[in-house]
């Protein structure tokens, strides 16, 4: 029922047995059930991220239904997107106690409940609570386990596996846009949300597929990763010093805590053995006591791991490149979300609805986004290519497209820019890989939780800000310009920190030479 460290991407650091016996490669690492994990994650991205990318359809329905400003109405979509990602660090705590599978199943139920309750909305503020908060938290509880499980099951093909699984966002955006548009026309937006809620119950099936690796499997993966570490050093060479100094938490307190926990359980077990001659009622009471003790220990251990990763002496926040990565994430995601929410309105303003109905611009982004994720994942897995450099080039392309989009007022021009936005935003498939290279597999769950939390903050304020700017200027141009400039600030932070990291060892060696 509860999860040990293997459930959330923590590796075991006991090297005492390495070399004593040849380690046989586990068939489930980079193969076997690993591909079922990819399928599960792919479906999660379709049902969660894909439907969120299609919320522009519902946003127009809500504007007509409730007659509220664009800024206020956009909060419904942004709350759902933002909370899905913001709850990442807290879902990391939940995963450490319950495991990825249980967390995802509970999240699937919550997400479906949010969609169904939203069908009975009487005003926008009701949607804030049902769709924004309830469905958003449920989505977050499924999304993070789906990403983390792929990282656990793959070693050699991580970028490709993450790329294939996250293409579900593109497929989902294309399919859900068409589905929601059809359902709204045929049955109205309320019944459309009710039907979508029923479809979202399939997230529980996806969660059931997330079978956790055994400690032995994770240990073998750790050994394989240690052997191939030199070949992967090119991926993020500027962050090697940081990973070595900050990537591993001290395990001595954990060992002491485990010893104390075993002592408590041992005493309960001793009492249970000694009381076998007693009544059945007392035996039942001892079993309850033992269960409560195990649950308490599990909660304490999960909280200790979660707390030490965020706030301990070897906290993730002492990694400067990782902190720069967080700052980038605070500005980046809104630039991708704003077009999905507001493009239907922009098309209507430019009188391009006829062409857009034939082939929606958001569908162009979604389709090309699929190819972008797969192609960028394949390129990043090449031994001569740095994942970090591919990630940066894709970011530069995307920010250029965001700044260019307001200049295009024809359907062809907008379609070309949207295609480039879709392809360059394929760098999302590289984010788990870059994060893992920065902090190590051991801290992937918590670190990626922080990154998607920062993305969630970006998604939370981006669309309402764009709507607010439109309410003032009656144009979306300044929304894209400001979002693009903030995005550029985040990219600059990514470029500055590696330079600082490279200079520090040189300065230190100079001081030692002088001494």
From TrEMBL:
Q: What positions does the domain Major facilitator superfamily (MFS) profile occupy?
A: 37-502
* One MF annotation (Gene Ontology) recorded for this entry: monocarboxylic acid transmembrane transporter activity
Major site of localization recorded for this protein: membrane
Membrane topology per the entry is: Multi-pass membrane protein
Transmembrane ranges, per UniProt, are 33-55, 75-95, 102-120, 126-148, 160-180, 192-210, 321-341, 361-379, 386-405, 411-434, 446-466, 478-496
| Key words of the record | Membrane, Transmembrane, Transmembrane helix
Q: Which InterPro entries match?
A: MFS (IPR011701), MFS_dom (IPR020846), MFS_trans_sf (IPR036259), Proton-linked_MCT (IPR050327)
PROSITE patterns per UniProt: MFS
> What domain of life?
Eukaryota
Record's subcellular location: Membrane
Q: Which Gene3D superfamilies match?
A: MFS general substrate transporter like domains
Cellular component terms per the entry's GO annotation: membrane
Give the protein name, as stated in the record. Answer: MOT14 protein
Q: What is the lineage of its organism?
A: Eukaryota, Metazoa, Chordata, Craniata, Vertebrata
Name of the gene: Slc16a14
């Amino acid at each position: 029922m509860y999860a040990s460290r293997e459930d959330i991407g923590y590796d075991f650091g006991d090297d005492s047995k390495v070399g004593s016996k040849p380690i046989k490669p586990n068939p489930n690492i980079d193969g076997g059930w690993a591909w079922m994990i990819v399928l599960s994650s792919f479906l999660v991205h379709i049902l969660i991220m894909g439907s969120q990318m299609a919320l522009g359809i519902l946003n127009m329905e809500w504007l007509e239904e409730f007659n509220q400003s664009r800024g206020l109405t956009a909060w419904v979509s942004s709350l759902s997107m933002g909370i899905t990602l913001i709850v990442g660090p807290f879902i990391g705590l939940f995963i450490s106690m319950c495991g990825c599978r249980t967390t995802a199943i509970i999240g699937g139920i919550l997400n479906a409940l949010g969609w169904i309750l939203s069908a009975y909305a009487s005003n926008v503020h009701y949607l804030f609570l049902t769709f924004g908060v309830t469905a958003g938290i449920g989505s977050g509880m499924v999304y993070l386990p789906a990403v983390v499980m792929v990282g656990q099951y793959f070693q050699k093909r991580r970028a490709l596996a993450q790329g294939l699984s996250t293409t579900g966002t593109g497929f989902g955006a294309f399919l859900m846009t068409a589905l929601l548009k059809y359902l709204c026309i045929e049955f109205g937006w309320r019944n459309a949300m009710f039907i979508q809620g029923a479809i979202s119950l399939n997230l529980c099936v996806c969660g059931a597929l997330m079978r956790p690796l055994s400690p032995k499997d994770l240990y073998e993966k750790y050994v394989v990763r240690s052997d191939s570490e030199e070949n992967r050093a090119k991926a993020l060479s500027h962050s090697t010093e940081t990973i070595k100094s900050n990537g591993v938490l001290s395990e001595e307190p954990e060992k002491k805590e485990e010893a104390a926990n075993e002592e408590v359980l041992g005493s309960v077990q001793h009492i249970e053995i000694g009381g076998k001659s007693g009544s059945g009622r007392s035996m039942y009471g001892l079993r309850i006591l033992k269960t409560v003790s195990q649950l308490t220990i599990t909660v304490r251990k999960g909280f200790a791991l979660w707390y030490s990763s965020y706030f301990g002496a070897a906290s993730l926040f002492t990694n400067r490149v990782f902190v720069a990565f967080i700052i980038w994430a605070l500005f980046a995601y809104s630039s991708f979300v704003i077009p999905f929410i507001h493009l239907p309105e922009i098309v209507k303003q430019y009188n391009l609805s006829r062409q857009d109905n034939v082939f929606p611009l958001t569908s162009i982004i979604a389709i090309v986004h699929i190819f972008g994720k797969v192609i960028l994942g394949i390129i990043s897995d090449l031994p001569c290519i740095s994942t970090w450099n591919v990630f940066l080039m894709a970011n530069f392309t995307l920010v250029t497209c965001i700044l260019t989009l307001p200049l295009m007022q024809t359907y062809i021009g907008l379609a070309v820019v949207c295609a480039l936005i879709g392809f360059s935003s394929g760098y999302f498939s590289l984010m788990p890989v870059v994060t893992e290279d920065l902090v190590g597999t051991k801290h992937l769950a918590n670190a990626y939780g922080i990154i998607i939390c920062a993305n969630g903050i970006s998604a939370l304020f981006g669309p309402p800000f764009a709507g607010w700017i439109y309410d003032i200027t009656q144009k979306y141009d300044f929304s894209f310009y400001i979002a693009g400039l903030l995005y550029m600030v985040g990219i600059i932070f990514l470029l500055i920190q590696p330079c600082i990291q490279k200079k520090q060892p040189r300065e230190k060696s100079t001081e030692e030479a002088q001494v």
